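Section 4.2 – Deliverable D4.2 (structural model, holo form)

The reporting period included a commitment to supply a predicted holo structure for the target in complex with nicotinamide-adenine-dinucleotide. Inputs used:
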Amino acid sequence: MRFLITGGAGFIGSAVCRRLAGDPANFVVNLDKLTYAGNLASLRSVDNLPNYAFVQADICDGETVSAAMRNYDIDIVMHLAAESHVDRSIDGPGAFIQTNIVGTFQMLNAARGYFESLTGEKRDRFRFHHISTDEVFGDLPFDSGIFTEETPYQPSSPYSASKASSDHLVRAWHETYGLPVVLSNCSNNYGPFHFPEKLIPLVILNALDERELPVYGKGENVRDWLYVDDHAAALQLVATKGVAGESYNIGGNAERRNIDVVSGICAILDKKRPRANGASYADLIRMVTDRPGHDRRYAIDASKIRRDLGWTPSQTFETGLEATIDWYLNNEWWWGPIRKEQGYERLGSLKASGPAK
Ligand code: NAD
Ligand code: DAU
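Output (structure tokens):
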């Protein structure tokens, strides 16, 4: 199979590229703009392989996207490129509208033209796989409810609204133009190569730096966590075996309160890298002002992908979190340069509205 992966220099996209390019029967083209979140260092293990190619491009550039599909004779497009951080979408929603909505429109338009040029088995094989999020379903109460593929969309943040819009566009291209699409909506990922603006890597690296560990609100919000390589395995199944027009929910059945996630990281670090002063890292936890529009709880019912495509995750939250912490302890070469550039300003607190950004 010949794959075009958009956003392959990001957290999940790089896991997908590493997984697919690890099999010499596949050819993998990674198309990525290299925004602040894109990092070619995450692809060090594959970038010399003969079955891997990189194209630096913006998905909003329809001509370049079309040329990549044609020139590399693509069978399956896996569309992951997006602005992905909720806090940034609160500070500056414009980039989310542009990449997540307009960019997905350009991807669909290019894929439609390319698909119409295909014949025979090549045409039967073609898939456009849109990678989305459980955040499109919105806010669940603490004590009940679970997201199925039939749950109505009710996004709360500029990020989730932009992803919901893109999901609607993808379904419209299937219904209207017959583009063979598959969609997947996944819960919170964590694991190696995760950009340290997101909760888990931020807390690990702040703790190692003896910085405060910010927990929004009362820390009671619940997320449903999945190890990134388990997500990549699920995505490969959806892209290659998913039924055109269908969507698949992906999640690890691992709901945890944020405060418990942060305390759990502190407890593991206390054992693996005790603080010089002998205190627990938990002393660094600070409850801070909540994120505006903060969804209380997400929970995924993944029974459809388990039943129809035979997917099962290999990590529990406990094994995956320990593996993740070990990875950050051993891979400063990857995160050191990012932390130097990143700064420590809190993202996503409400600022006065100015000209649209
Ligand atoms: P990420 O922010 O780590 O990576 C995004 C990648 O997209 C980066 O490499 C970036 O350079 C690239 N990109 C951004 N704008 C682009 C553009 N205009 N043109 C080309 N490339 C561009 O994101 P991630 O966490 O790896 O998420 C990947 C996808 O999975 C996103 O679509 C996201 O909505 C979805 N998703 C993420 C999670 C999660 O927990 N991280 C969960 C469910 C779904
Ligand atoms: O649910 C899937 C989504 O998960 C993906 O679609 C997004 O791309 C991905 O970024 C992630 O979104 P979240 O907003 O859930 O992830 P984040 O790591 O930013 O926050 C996780 C939880 O932790 C959330 O309830 C907010 C809270 N939080 C976050 C940060 C950065 C804190 O309490 N403190 C923090 O400093």
